[in-house]
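Field log, afternoon session.

UNIT: design team B
ACTIVITY: writing a sequence onto a fixed backbone
BACKBONE:
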């Protein structure tokens, strides 16, 4: 197994929004949503790190699977992150398939 250097940047769509002229994040509801997104993504990152260190961890896989369900908050961001890192997490790709 090859160790991959990792960092967890904000999802690309947030960076794109920040570049827009009216993409300021100064309204309270927007700031609150960003904090919620950040919290959800941090939970995902921690569970993915557990899977990365121990691929046989059934509890971490179960937790990630629940985070990737439609009912979970910000599922699209989380699924997109897992899709973009398919090389690192091939066992999770079945949970992020696009609906046909």
């Amino acid at each position: 197994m090859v160790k991959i250097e990792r960092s967890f940047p904000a999802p690309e769509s947030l960076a794109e929004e920040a570049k827009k002229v009216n993409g300021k994040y100064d309204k309270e509801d927007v700031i609150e949503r960003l904090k919620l997104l950040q919290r959800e993504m941090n939970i995902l990152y921690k569970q993915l790190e557990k899977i990365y260190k121990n691929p046989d961890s059934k509890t971490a896989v179960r937790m990630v699977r629940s985070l990737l369900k439609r009912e979970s908050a910000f599922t699209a961001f989380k699924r997109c992150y897992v899709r973009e890192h398919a090389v690192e997490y091939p066992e999770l790709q079945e949970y992020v398939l696009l609906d046909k």
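LOG NOTE: The chain has a mean pLDDT of 82.
NEXT ACTIVITY: expression trials, pending approval
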